[in-house]
Amino acid sequence: MAMVAAIVTLILAEPLMTLVHRFVFHGALWCEHESHHAHPTDRRIVRNDLLWIWPLLASAALVVFGGSVLAGIGIGGALYVAAYILAHDGVAHGRFRVPRWLRRMTVLRIIAQTHRLHHRGGRSGKGAPPFGVYLAPLEYRWGLLVRYTPPTKLCA
What we know:
The protein is mainly alpha-helical and about 160 residues long. The protein has one domain (about 1-140). The protein has helices spanning about 1-30, 30-40, 55-65, 70-90, 100-105, 105-120, 135-140. The chain starts with a helix and ends in a 14-residue tail after the last helix.
């Protein structure tokens, strides 16, 4: 049962994270997330990186303190975070070394190319659709989340 819960969580995490990225990171948490748009290829830790602490702590708590199903949800959540960091920070932004054979995989190259659309405007860009990572090519092709107003909040 834990394996099923992990797989379902892993699959559902991408559409959920797409919505969180669009409405929370580019909304209430823009001042934290802005560091990623200002320094997308920076190899040092930026404020945006700290946003992953909470989902990882929640996943760890579910694995340690939950039963079979909750542990599966925690494992699926942690696997998604790892997959996201690999595709987004490693392949799309080159923030850490990723083996060439992995970077050359067609699916990861397409993800990286599509993610560049999100960073239109360079360091001054506030981001644009697509907001997902693994489903970003479909999000872009289908025109989802296109009604987007960039955040206007100034961060200190």
